[in-house]
Amino acid sequence: MALVVAFVAGLVFGLGLIVAGMTNPAKILGFLDVAGKWDPSLALVMAGAVAVGGVAFALANRRTMSALGSPLQLPAGRTIDVRLVGGSLLFGIGWGLAGFCPGPAIVALGAGYVKSGVFVVAMLLGMGAFELIERNRTRNESGAPDATSA
Q1: Which residues neighbour 43 within 8 Å (Cβ) at sequence distance 6 or greater?
Q2: Is residue 150 part of a domain?
Q3: Residue 12 lies in a domain
């Protein structure tokens, strides 16, 4: 049942991204071009997403179990640090250069847009690099010897 719900939720999300124009890099770049021909329509999509997310998080904070009976795990971090700001900057730069963010890029790839494939490959490489850096950082903080010091 959980797989069916996840599939339907992903399908609705993907269709929403298509309807909102989020899979079209020109629309995204038009939104980011505040000094040129700015397209504010994406701001409405974002405002709607923030409103829905706000209600969902408010309801989720009152629960311990999901609607399907699994434990509800909400983000615990509340601090704004260098890593968060740095990651946000990298995300914004990538979004501005490519006109894609992760969800819409995957939807666009599924729809056959070749340009999104380049973004998805770069995204996966970035995620892999982050994982390697995190493992090395965690290993160094715990004091365990790593492969380079042997």
Answers
A1: 31
A2: no
A3: yes
Would you call 88 exposed, middle or buried from its count of C-beta atoms within 10 A (0-12, 13-18, 19+)?
exposed
Q: What is the pLDDT of residue 106?
A: 92
pTM: 0.72
> Residue 148 falls within a domain, yes or no?
no
pLDDT of residue 52: 93
Cβ burial of 28 (10 Å; 0-12, 13-18, 19+) is buried
Per the domain annotation, does 136 fall within a domain?
yes
For residue 128, give both structure tokens. 């892999």
- What pLDDT digit, counting tens, does each position of 21-79 carry? 888 888 888 988 889 889 998 888 889 999 999 999 999 989 988 888 888 888 888 89
Residue 145 pLDDT > 70, yes or no?
Answer: no
What is the sign of the dihedral through the CA atoms of 106, 110, 114 and 118? Answer: positive
**Which domain does 65 fall in, by range?**
2-143
Count: domains in the chain: 1
The DSSP secondary-structure symbol of 65 reads B
Q: What is the CA radius of gyration of the chain?
A: 19
Per DSSP, what are the bridge partners of residue 65? Answer: 71
Q: How sure is the predictor about 143, in pLDDT bands with cuts at 50, 70 and 90?
A: confident
Three-state secondary structure call for residue 121? helix
